[in-house]
Design goal:
There is one protein chain. 35% of the residues lie in helices and 18% in strands. It contains 11 helices and 8 strands. α2 crosses α3.
Protein backbone atom coordinates (compact mmCIF):
# COMPACT_ATOMS: atom_id res chain seq x y z
CA UNK A 1 0.00 0.00 0.00
CA UNK A 2 1.19 3.50 -0.88
CA UNK A 3 0.20 6.36 1.43
CA UNK A 4 0.67 9.96 0.25
CA UNK A 5 -0.26 13.25 1.90
CA UNK A 6 -0.89 16.41 -0.09
CA UNK A 7 -2.28 19.90 0.14
CA UNK A 8 -5.52 20.11 -1.83
CA UNK A 9 -5.41 23.54 -3.43
CA UNK A 10 -1.71 23.99 -4.12
CA UNK A 11 1.75 22.98 -3.05
CA UNK A 12 1.10 23.92 0.58
CA UNK A 13 -1.99 24.58 2.71
CA UNK A 14 -2.78 28.26 3.27
CA UNK A 15 -4.97 30.03 5.85
CA UNK A 16 -7.50 30.64 3.08
CA UNK A 17 -7.30 27.08 1.69
CA UNK A 18 -6.16 24.77 4.53
CA UNK A 19 -7.59 21.51 3.16
CA UNK A 20 -5.33 18.49 2.78
CA UNK A 21 -5.86 14.88 1.78
CA UNK A 22 -4.28 11.47 2.27
CA UNK A 23 -4.22 9.02 -0.62
CA UNK A 24 -4.34 5.28 0.08
CA UNK A 25 -3.25 3.53 -3.10
CA UNK A 26 -2.95 -0.17 -3.85
CA UNK A 27 0.45 -1.52 -4.74
CA UNK A 28 0.77 -2.54 -8.37
CA UNK A 29 1.21 -6.23 -9.02
CA UNK A 30 2.08 -7.73 -12.43
CA UNK A 31 -1.33 -9.32 -12.93
CA UNK A 32 -2.99 -5.92 -12.44
CA UNK A 33 -0.76 -3.68 -14.53
CA UNK A 34 -3.63 -2.57 -16.75
CA UNK A 35 -6.31 -2.55 -14.07
CA UNK A 36 -8.19 0.67 -13.33
CA UNK A 37 -9.64 0.98 -9.84
CA UNK A 38 -12.78 2.74 -8.69
CA UNK A 39 -12.16 5.46 -6.09
CA UNK A 40 -13.79 6.85 -2.98
CA UNK A 41 -13.34 10.23 -1.33
CA UNK A 42 -13.95 9.89 2.42
CA UNK A 43 -15.30 12.82 4.46
CA UNK A 44 -15.53 12.17 8.19
CA UNK A 45 -17.87 14.02 10.51
CA UNK A 46 -17.18 16.20 13.51
CA UNK A 47 -19.77 18.96 13.55
CA UNK A 48 -17.71 21.23 11.27
CA UNK A 49 -15.37 21.95 14.19
CA UNK A 50 -13.00 19.01 13.62
CA UNK A 51 -12.93 15.71 11.71
CA UNK A 52 -13.38 12.45 13.61
CA UNK A 53 -10.37 10.22 12.99
CA UNK A 54 -12.34 6.98 13.31
CA UNK A 55 -14.35 8.08 10.26
CA UNK A 56 -11.22 8.55 8.18
CA UNK A 57 -8.48 5.91 7.88
CA UNK A 58 -10.63 2.93 9.02
CA UNK A 59 -13.11 3.81 6.28
CA UNK A 60 -10.36 4.20 3.69
CA UNK A 61 -8.86 0.83 4.59
CA UNK A 62 -12.25 -0.88 4.45
CA UNK A 63 -12.86 0.43 0.95
CA UNK A 64 -9.33 -0.49 -0.11
CA UNK A 65 -10.05 -4.05 0.96
CA UNK A 66 -13.11 -3.91 -1.29
CA UNK A 67 -10.98 -2.90 -4.29
CA UNK A 68 -11.05 0.91 -4.22
CA UNK A 69 -8.35 3.53 -4.24
CA UNK A 70 -9.23 5.70 -1.25
CA UNK A 71 -8.72 9.37 -0.41
CA UNK A 72 -9.33 10.84 3.03
CA UNK A 73 -10.19 14.53 2.78
CA UNK A 74 -9.44 16.96 5.59
CA UNK A 75 -11.88 19.60 4.44
CA UNK A 76 -11.87 22.97 6.20
CA UNK A 77 -13.37 23.07 9.70
CA UNK A 78 -13.62 25.86 12.25
CA UNK A 79 -10.38 24.60 13.80
CA UNK A 80 -8.46 25.12 10.55
CA UNK A 81 -10.16 28.01 8.78
CA UNK A 82 -13.42 29.50 7.55
CA UNK A 83 -16.07 26.78 7.66
CA UNK A 84 -18.83 28.95 6.22
CA UNK A 85 -20.85 27.38 3.41
CA UNK A 86 -19.76 26.62 0.70
CA UNK A 87 -16.10 26.32 1.70
CA UNK A 88 -16.19 22.67 2.88
CA UNK A 89 -18.33 21.77 -0.12
CA UNK A 90 -15.80 23.37 -2.46
CA UNK A 91 -13.08 21.24 -0.86
CA UNK A 92 -14.85 17.98 -1.65
CA UNK A 93 -15.63 19.20 -5.18
CA UNK A 94 -11.94 20.03 -5.65
CA UNK A 95 -11.01 16.58 -4.31
CA UNK A 96 -13.24 14.82 -6.85
CA UNK A 97 -11.70 16.92 -9.63
CA UNK A 98 -8.22 16.15 -8.29
CA UNK A 99 -8.87 12.41 -8.38
CA UNK A 100 -9.99 12.65 -11.99
CA UNK A 101 -7.03 14.87 -12.92
CA UNK A 102 -4.63 12.26 -11.54
CA UNK A 103 -6.58 9.21 -12.70
CA UNK A 104 -3.78 7.91 -14.93
CA UNK A 105 -1.08 8.24 -12.28
CA UNK A 106 -3.27 6.66 -9.62
CA UNK A 107 -4.67 3.93 -11.92
CA UNK A 108 -8.26 5.08 -11.42
CA UNK A 109 -11.26 4.87 -13.71
CA UNK A 110 -12.38 8.54 -13.84
CA UNK A 111 -15.98 7.42 -14.40
CA UNK A 112 -16.02 5.56 -11.06
CA UNK A 113 -15.44 8.17 -8.34
CA UNK A 114 -17.75 8.07 -5.31
CA UNK A 115 -17.90 10.28 -2.23
CA UNK A 116 -18.52 8.84 1.23
CA UNK A 117 -19.61 11.13 4.06
CA UNK A 118 -20.52 10.71 7.72
CA UNK A 119 -22.50 13.13 9.88
CA UNK A 120 -21.31 16.66 8.96
CA UNK A 121 -19.22 15.06 6.22
CA UNK A 122 -22.49 13.66 4.93
CA UNK A 123 -23.83 17.21 4.65
CA UNK A 124 -20.78 18.19 2.60
CA UNK A 125 -21.12 15.19 0.27
CA UNK A 126 -24.88 15.53 -0.11
CA UNK A 127 -24.43 19.22 -0.92
CA UNK A 128 -22.01 18.34 -3.71
CA UNK A 129 -24.46 15.76 -5.03
CA UNK A 130 -27.16 18.42 -5.30
CA UNK A 131 -25.01 21.41 -6.33
CA UNK A 132 -22.47 20.01 -8.78
CA UNK A 133 -24.30 21.24 -11.88
CA UNK A 134 -24.32 24.86 -10.67
CA UNK A 135 -21.80 26.55 -12.95
CA UNK A 136 -21.09 29.32 -10.43
CA UNK A 137 -20.28 26.67 -7.82
CA UNK A 138 -18.02 24.77 -10.24
CA UNK A 139 -16.32 28.01 -11.25
CA UNK A 140 -15.17 28.50 -7.65
CA UNK A 141 -13.39 25.15 -7.95
CA UNK A 142 -11.87 26.21 -11.25
CA UNK A 143 -13.30 23.28 -13.18
CA UNK A 144 -16.26 22.17 -15.25
CA UNK A 145 -19.41 20.83 -13.54
CA UNK A 146 -19.01 17.33 -14.98
CA UNK A 147 -15.50 17.12 -13.50
CA UNK A 148 -16.74 17.67 -9.93
CA UNK A 149 -19.79 15.42 -10.18
CA UNK A 150 -19.47 12.30 -8.02
CA UNK A 151 -20.57 9.11 -9.76
CA UNK A 152 -22.25 7.90 -6.55
CA UNK A 153 -22.72 9.05 -2.98
CA UNK A 154 -22.67 7.05 0.26
CA UNK A 155 -23.99 8.80 3.37
CA UNK A 156 -23.76 7.48 6.91
CA UNK A 157 -25.98 8.99 9.63
CA UNK A 158 -25.76 12.29 7.73
CA UNK A 159 -26.55 15.80 8.76
CA UNK A 160 -28.89 16.97 6.01
CA UNK A 161 -30.99 19.81 7.40
CA UNK A 162 -29.74 22.25 10.02
CA UNK A 163 -33.32 23.34 10.66
CA UNK A 164 -34.23 19.88 11.95
CA UNK A 165 -31.26 19.66 14.29
CA UNK A 166 -31.96 23.20 15.50
CA UNK A 167 -35.57 22.41 16.28
CA UNK A 168 -34.59 19.23 18.11
CA UNK A 169 -32.23 21.15 20.37
CA UNK A 170 -34.73 23.93 20.99
CA UNK A 171 -37.17 21.39 22.40
CA UNK A 172 -34.97 21.12 25.48
CA UNK A 173 -36.24 23.69 28.01
CA UNK A 174 -32.73 24.05 29.41
CA UNK A 175 -31.59 25.72 26.18
CA UNK A 176 -32.28 29.16 27.65
CA UNK A 177 -30.40 28.61 30.90
CA UNK A 178 -27.15 30.50 31.15
CA UNK A 179 -24.12 28.44 30.24
CA UNK A 180 -20.99 28.85 32.41
CA UNK A 181 -17.91 30.53 30.93
CA UNK A 182 -19.64 31.80 27.80
CA UNK A 183 -19.93 35.47 28.64
CA UNK A 184 -23.52 35.13 29.75
CA UNK A 185 -24.72 33.51 26.53
CA UNK A 186 -27.52 30.99 26.71
CA UNK A 187 -27.61 27.68 24.94
CA UNK A 188 -29.90 29.29 22.37
CA UNK A 189 -27.32 31.99 21.75
CA UNK A 190 -24.57 29.43 21.30
CA UNK A 191 -26.72 27.41 18.92
CA UNK A 192 -27.43 30.50 16.82
CA UNK A 193 -23.71 31.34 16.78
CA UNK A 194 -22.93 27.85 15.53
CA UNK A 195 -25.60 27.91 12.83
CA UNK A 196 -24.41 31.32 11.64
CA UNK A 197 -20.84 30.05 11.49
CA UNK A 198 -21.84 27.14 9.26
CA UNK A 199 -24.31 29.16 7.17
CA UNK A 200 -21.84 31.97 6.56
CA UNK A 201 -24.12 34.69 7.89
CA UNK A 202 -27.33 35.14 9.81
CA UNK A 203 -28.99 31.75 10.21
CA UNK A 204 -32.40 32.78 8.93
CA UNK A 205 -34.98 30.20 7.95
CA UNK A 206 -34.41 31.14 4.33
CA UNK A 207 -30.64 30.77 4.54
CA UNK A 208 -30.81 27.40 6.28
CA UNK A 209 -33.25 26.17 3.65
CA UNK A 210 -30.99 27.47 0.86
CA UNK A 211 -28.01 25.40 2.02
CA UNK A 212 -30.04 22.30 2.90
CA UNK A 213 -29.30 19.38 0.53
CA UNK A 214 -32.88 18.13 0.84
CA UNK A 215 -34.31 21.31 -0.67
CA UNK A 216 -31.82 21.21 -3.57
CA UNK A 217 -32.46 17.68 -4.87
CA UNK A 218 -33.02 17.43 -8.63
CA UNK A 219 -33.04 14.60 -11.15
CA UNK A 220 -29.36 15.39 -11.84
CA UNK A 221 -28.24 13.94 -8.49
CA UNK A 222 -25.99 10.89 -8.81
CA UNK A 223 -27.11 7.59 -7.22
CA UNK A 224 -27.28 7.80 -3.42
CA UNK A 225 -26.92 5.19 -0.68
CA UNK A 226 -27.88 6.46 2.77
CA UNK A 227 -28.10 4.78 6.13
CA UNK A 228 -28.82 5.84 9.70
CA UNK A 229 -30.32 4.70 12.97
CA UNK A 230 -33.77 5.33 14.35
CA UNK A 231 -32.40 6.34 17.75
CA UNK A 232 -29.83 8.87 16.50
CA UNK A 233 -30.25 12.02 18.60
CA UNK A 234 -27.35 13.90 16.97
CA UNK A 235 -28.59 13.73 13.38
CA UNK A 236 -32.29 12.83 13.70
CA UNK A 237 -33.42 10.15 11.29
CA UNK A 238 -36.30 12.35 10.10
CA UNK A 239 -33.72 14.08 7.90
CA UNK A 240 -32.96 10.83 6.09
CA UNK A 241 -36.64 10.16 5.43
CA UNK A 242 -37.14 13.68 4.03
CA UNK A 243 -34.04 13.40 1.85
CA UNK A 244 -35.09 9.99 0.54
CA UNK A 245 -38.55 11.36 -0.28
CA UNK A 246 -36.95 14.17 -2.26
CA UNK A 247 -34.76 11.69 -4.15
CA UNK A 248 -37.78 9.54 -4.91
CA UNK A 249 -39.74 12.55 -6.11
CA UNK A 250 -36.93 13.51 -8.47
CA UNK A 251 -36.52 9.96 -9.78
CA UNK A 252 -32.96 9.57 -8.45
CA UNK A 253 -31.63 6.04 -7.97
CA UNK A 254 -31.21 5.54 -4.24
CA UNK A 255 -31.17 3.01 -1.43
CA UNK A 256 -32.02 3.68 2.22
CA UNK A 257 -31.34 1.60 5.34
CA UNK A 258 -32.61 2.63 8.76
CA UNK A 259 -31.40 0.41 11.57
CA UNK A 260 -33.63 0.29 14.64
CA UNK A 261 -30.82 1.16 17.07
CA UNK A 262 -27.17 2.11 17.17
CA UNK A 263 -26.99 5.82 17.81
CA UNK A 264 -24.44 8.01 16.07
CA UNK A 265 -20.82 7.95 15.01
CA UNK A 266 -20.42 4.25 14.26
CA UNK A 267 -18.15 4.52 11.19
CA UNK A 268 -17.52 1.14 9.54
CA UNK A 269 -18.64 -0.71 12.70
CA UNK A 270 -15.75 -3.11 12.94
CA UNK A 271 -13.00 -3.85 15.45
CA UNK A 272 -11.02 -0.75 14.45
CA UNK A 273 -13.86 1.62 15.35
CA UNK A 274 -15.37 -0.14 18.36
CA UNK A 275 -15.33 1.97 21.53
CA UNK A 276 -17.30 0.26 24.29
CA UNK A 277 -20.27 0.07 21.95
CA UNK A 278 -20.02 -3.49 20.62
CA UNK A 279 -23.79 -4.06 20.55
CA UNK A 280 -24.47 -0.83 18.67
CA UNK A 281 -21.73 -1.60 16.17
CA UNK A 282 -22.98 -5.11 15.56
CA UNK A 283 -26.48 -3.77 14.86
CA UNK A 284 -25.34 -1.60 11.95
CA UNK A 285 -22.35 -3.60 10.67
CA UNK A 286 -24.16 -4.82 7.52
CA UNK A 287 -24.21 -1.30 6.10
CA UNK A 288 -20.77 -1.58 4.53
CA UNK A 289 -21.51 -4.69 2.50
CA UNK A 290 -24.85 -3.23 1.46
CA UNK A 291 -23.15 -0.04 0.30
CA UNK A 292 -20.53 -1.93 -1.71
CA UNK A 293 -23.27 -3.98 -3.38
CA UNK A 294 -25.14 -0.76 -4.23
CA UNK A 295 -22.01 0.80 -5.71
CA UNK A 296 -21.52 -2.28 -7.85
CA UNK A 297 -25.12 -2.15 -9.09
CA UNK A 298 -24.80 1.50 -10.12
CA UNK A 299 -21.51 0.85 -11.90
CA UNK A 300 -19.04 2.32 -9.41
CA UNK A 301 -17.04 -0.79 -8.57
Amino acid sequence: MIIEQHALWGDEPTPERPATYTAYLADRIPAQEQKLFPAVVVCGGGGFTRIAEHEQEPVALAFMSAGYQAFVLNYVTSSTGDVAYPNPELDVAKMVATVRANADAWHIDPAKVAVVGFSAGGFVCASLATQWKDRAFAAQVGDRPERIRPDAVVLGYPLLDLRVTRDEQLRDPRIDLRVPKTGGKTGRDLLNDYLSMVAGGEATEERLAEICPTTQVTRDCPPVFVWGTADDTTCPIAQVHAFAAALAGAGVSHEVHVFSAGGHGLSVANATTEAQNAAEQAAVRPWFGLACAFLERVGVA
